[in-house]
Each structure stands twice: as structure tokens, then as C-alpha cells.
Hints:
The structure is a single chain. The chain has 3 domains: 63 residues, no CATH class; 142 residues, HAD superfamily/HAD-like (Rossmann fold), CATH 3.40.50; 66 residues, DNA polymerase, domain 1, CATH 1.10.150. The relative contact order is 0.15. The two termini are 27 Å apart. By secondary structure, the protein is α/β, with parallel strands linked by helices. The strands form 4 sheets. Strands 12-11-10-13-14-15 form a 6-stranded parallel beta sheet. It has 9 helices and 16 strands.
Amino acid sequence: MIRMDLHHQITVCILDRLSGRIWMQFENFIVCRMVLVHGPVFVVAGKKISCILIINSADVKRGVHRGEKLKYKAIFLDNDGILVDTEKFYYRATREILQEIGIKLTEEMYRQLFLVQSRGAWHLAKELGFSDIDVERMRKERNARYLSYLAANDIAIPGVRDVLDCLHQKTILGIVTSAERKHFDFIHAKTGLSGYFDFVLAQGDYVHSKPHPEPYLRALEKSSFAPSECLVIEDSLRGLQSAQSAGLDCWIVPRGLTVGEDFSNAGRLLADLADMLPLVLQS
């Protein structure tokens, strides 16, 4: 058994025992309580972890500074594309319905109409002479297909739960999404991620959708913090514009249909959600 005294600085690497994948790394880990090593089992800050190794800091390529607080008092995250990989199924369902009436909805058209302008595509059907009743029928069919695709496919994004584990109870976490509430509830009944969040703002909780600033202004009201104390994580241009118009710093994690967009105005451009952790955790 090895004892490490209070305030001793160590470097640790947490591994997934089954896959061998590095789950999280901590450089300059400040021991807040006594750390005991019992063979393959470690006890860190009172929490037993069975898959942790201590390695030399020279071997660590990327680390997270362990601390008691975050740089931001609240973090607001988009849902589709950030927490779950669902946008492609919404596009697929919409494309299929429109294709049945002779409209070809390309990926570029979808990006512009949905992820930049937030306009949707039903106006294309109306331009062909379809009535509001026809459009409502098509919308319901699209939504039914979308839910069926969500039910039949894996929508998890690897590493998201690990990131939320690190942030949970260290800051206010909120979801700000353009999704319909019933779709959101269906998604997270499947993922089980809802418990990490202090509040959710979905379609119907605001009048004007992204790129209008209202969704994030409502999030600020919910959090009771100033814009300078909050951070937004988004994956689309409409989300970036909405957050910045509300006076918030916004970092972008492109995924799927938003990869390759011009996010030069973003506060940061990240390859993966986990890349935010070294930037928000304070030592």
C-alpha cells in the first residue's frame, strides 16, 4: 500500500479496463485527501476507482488540471450534435418526405435552411401548391419517421457522459435546444443524460428560435449569472449567432452536417467535446 500525503502533486491516468482507452488524464493532481493504492484499486478523494494508473508527467500528452471550481459558473450546451448524434436522422426523415413530392433536399440546402437560417423546408412544399393541411400531414409523417430512426439507431456520442461526469455539480449545466420537447424527451429517455442538467430550454420555451438571441437570453435568466460568467457549446452557425447575440462566449464542436462551416468568429473551435475540459477546469 502506498500513501500520498495531502497537497502532494501527482499525475494520474484513468483507463477504461475493457478497451484500454484513456478516459481522462490529470496533470498536477493536487491530493485533497489521502490517496491509497491497494493493488489495482485506488481511492481518490474518497471515491474508489478500479482502473487508474499513476504515470510520469513526461508520458502524459494531454492533461486536465484538477481543481475545485470551473472558470464558468454556468455552461449551456446545444443538444443535437453536441450531446447526441441525431441531426443526420432529422435530415434523413425530412429529405425522404420531401422526396415523395418531388423535392430534392440536398445536404447543403438542409445546412442553410435548418442550421443557418432556422427556416425549415416546408415553404418548398407550399411553393408547389401544397396546402397548410398537406404540410401538417407531411410534418407529422416526418416526425414519426424521425422517432423511428432514433429508436432503431445508436445516437450516443462517445465521451459525452465522461465530460458531463466531470462537470456535474461543479457548475450550472443547461441545455438550449431547437428540438421539440417530445423529441428531446424521447432522446434522453434513451440516453439517460437528463439528470446531469439543471434546466432544459426546448422549442416552446421561447418565442424566437436560434439564430435569435432569445433562447440564450432565457438561459441567462435561468442561471441568474452575467454573460461573462457563462459559456456556450454549440455545433452550428445559427447556435453561434444566437449565443453571441446574447453576449455569450461560444465554443464550437462541429459534427456531421456542420463540419467545414466557417466558424472563424467562434471563441474556440474544438475537435471534440472533451477538449473543453482542460480549458474550463481551474487548478
